[in-house]
Amino acid sequence: MAQIHLRIADLRRQKKVTQQELADRGVSYQTVSRWETGTGEPELSLLAALAEYFQVSVDQLLGLTPMEGETYVPERTGTKDFFHSPIVGVL
Asked: If DSSP codes are grouped into helix, strand and coil, which group holds residue 60?
């Protein structure tokens, strides 16, 4: 789950919701902040709910499979550009 913090932050921004709005789904905004900074990770029990909220698969949320329109960039593993989208500014 090393890349989940990048996905959560990008998906939240794409959905145009604040950390507080995401947190209102059952956690504190500090928890969301920790997820996005990589200092914490969502509990396993929350992964399905987060994936459903963002309308992605759990594998996509975890960064194990690319989002629609993305391609895998092996030399960028472990970075924000792990997957590349042809649409600028969209993960």
From this structure: helix
CATH number for the domain running over 4-65:
1.10.260.40
Place of tokens 């987060």: 50
At a CB cut-off of 8 Å and minimum separation 6, what does 2 contact?
63, 78
* pTM, two decimal places: 0.74
Q: What is the C-alpha separation between 41 and 13, in angstroms, rounded?
A: 18
For the chain, the domains span 4-65
Collapsed DSSP state (helix, strand, coil) of residue 18:
coil
- Phi, psi (rounded to 5 degrees) for 22: -65, -40
- For residue 73, the model assigns a pLDDT of 64
Residues in the chain: 91
